[in-house]
Design goal:
The protein is an alpha+beta fold. The protein has one domain. It is about 55% helix and about 20% strand. The strands form two sheets. The protein has a two-stranded antiparallel sheet. Strands 3-4 form a two-stranded antiparallel sheet. Helix 1 runs antiparallel to helix 4. The protein is elongated and about 75 Å long.
C-alpha cells in the first residue's frame, strides 16, 4: 500500500466513522431501554401496574462531530423513587413513608457498557476494513 492509498483510505474512514459510531450508540441505547423495561417488569424491580411508567422509557440519539450521544430516560416523577427508594420520610401533612428501592436502571448499566464497547470496536473495524 502506497502512502497515497493509505491517506485516501484514512480519509474515507474519517468520513464514515461518525455515522458508524452513531449506529452503534443508537443500538446500545435501544438495548439499554429494553433492559430497563425488562427490569421494570416485576421483582426485583418495580411491578407493572398500569404500564405507563414502563412505556415512558425513551431513547434519544443525537449525532455530534465524529460520533453520537444517546440519552435513555423517563419523564415520570416516580422513576428516581422507584430506583433508589426513600427511607424514613415524613411529608408536610405528617404522613410517614418508607419505600425500599426497586433497582431497574442500575442493573442494566453493565450490559449497556458492554454493548457500547462492542459497538465501538465494530464501528472502527467497519470503517477500516
Amino acid at each position: 500500500m502506497t502512502p497515497d492509498e493509505l491517506a485516501s483510505r484514512l480519509d474515507r474512514a474519517a468520513t464514515d466513522l461518525g455515522p458508524a459510531i452513531e449506529r452503534a450508540v443508537q443500538h446500545a441505547g435501544e438495548l439499554g431501554r429494553a433492559l430497563i423495561r425488562a427490569n421494570a417488569s416485576g421483582r426485583p424491580g418495580p411491578n407493572i401496574i398500569t404500564g405507563q411508567y414502563w412505556a415512558s422509557w425513551q431513547t434519544q440519539t443525537r449525532a455530534i462531530p465524529h460520533g453520537a450521544q444517546c440519552t435513555i430516560g423517563t419523564d415520570r416523577p416516580q422513576g428516581r423513587r422507584l430506583e433508589f427508594g426513600f427511607f424514613d420520610m415524613t411529608d408536610s401533612l405528617g404522613r410517614h413513608y418508607y419505600q425500599p428501592p426497586f433497582p431497574h436502571v442500575g442493573p442494566a448499566v453493565p450490559a449497556i457498557q458492554s454493548a457500547l464497547r462492542a459497538g465501538m470496536l465494530s464501528a472502527v473495524s467497519e470503517v477500516l476494513s
